[in-house]
């Protein structure tokens, strides 16, 4: 299975060309990403199942408490959903209409999701995690260890809707998207 990541012009087709984007070669580039594994849910437990050929890449991950998981929103991979550029964050109409690059909506030109997950164990080619906002069998794009010194700790700001815990998204598997 290959996941094609398309540039803006390719993803939006005629709409992008009509908007004047067609002449820029950088926007016409395409990239191919090969999944490194999938999300697996078994008996209330969640795993990142890494394909055997990439399993050696997990060496040392057990030394970290958290991992950043990049995955592909494969259930939203349609030209129509890739063309959506504004949403009400978290699927809540009371949140202001916001650009997809200013929220974590699963509809976007390139369907890459990101979750930071607690690592419970690393065994062979499987990483057991506490939870992830992704469906069973979601393709994994990459894993990166969470390193706190890489994350900003001062002067962080977010809009009001993002700071409200009561506005948090539904638990995994219950999200209607």
Mind explaining what this structure looks like?
The structure is a single chain. The protein is of the alpha+beta class and 177 residues long. The chain has a domain at 1-34. It contains 5 helices and 10 strands; from the N terminus they run βαααββββαβββββα. The longest helix has 5 residues, at 8-12. 22% of the residues are buried. Mean pLDDT is 83; it is low at 5-22 and 173-177.
pLDDT below 50 for ≥5 consecutive residues: which ranges?
A: 5-22, 173-177
Number of helical segments?
Answer: 5
Secondary structure: number of strands? 10
Radius of gyration: 18 Å
Structural class: alpha+beta
Largest pleated sheet: 6 strands, antiparallel, barrel
Give the terminus-to-terminus CA distance. 23 Å
Strand content: 25-35%
Main attributes of the structure:
177 residues, alpha+beta, two-stranded antiparallel ribbon, 5 helices, 10 strands, 12% helix, disordered C terminus
């Amino acid at each position: 299975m290959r996941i094609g990541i398309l540039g803006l012009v390719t993803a939006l087709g005629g709409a992008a060309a009509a908007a004047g984007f067609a002449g820029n070669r950088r926007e016409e580039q395409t990239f191919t990403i090969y999944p490194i594994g999938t999300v697996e849910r078994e008996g209330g437990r969640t795993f990142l199942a890494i394909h055997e050929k990439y399993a050696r890449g997990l060496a040392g991950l057990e030394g970290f408490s958290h991992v950043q998981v990049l995955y592909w929103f494969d259930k939203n991979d349609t030209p129509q959903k890739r063309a959506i550029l504004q949403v009400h964050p978290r699927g809540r109409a009371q949140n202001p209409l916001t650009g997809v690059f200013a929220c974590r909506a699963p509809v976007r030109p390139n369907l890459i999701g990101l979750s930071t997950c607690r690592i419970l164990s690393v065994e062979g080619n499987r990483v057991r995690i506490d939870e992830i906002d992704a469906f069973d069998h979601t393709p994994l794009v990459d894993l990166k260890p969470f390193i706190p010194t890489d994350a900003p700790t001062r002067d962080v700001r977010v809009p009001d809707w993002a700071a409200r815990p009561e506005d948090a998204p539904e638990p995994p598997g219950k999200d209607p998207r």
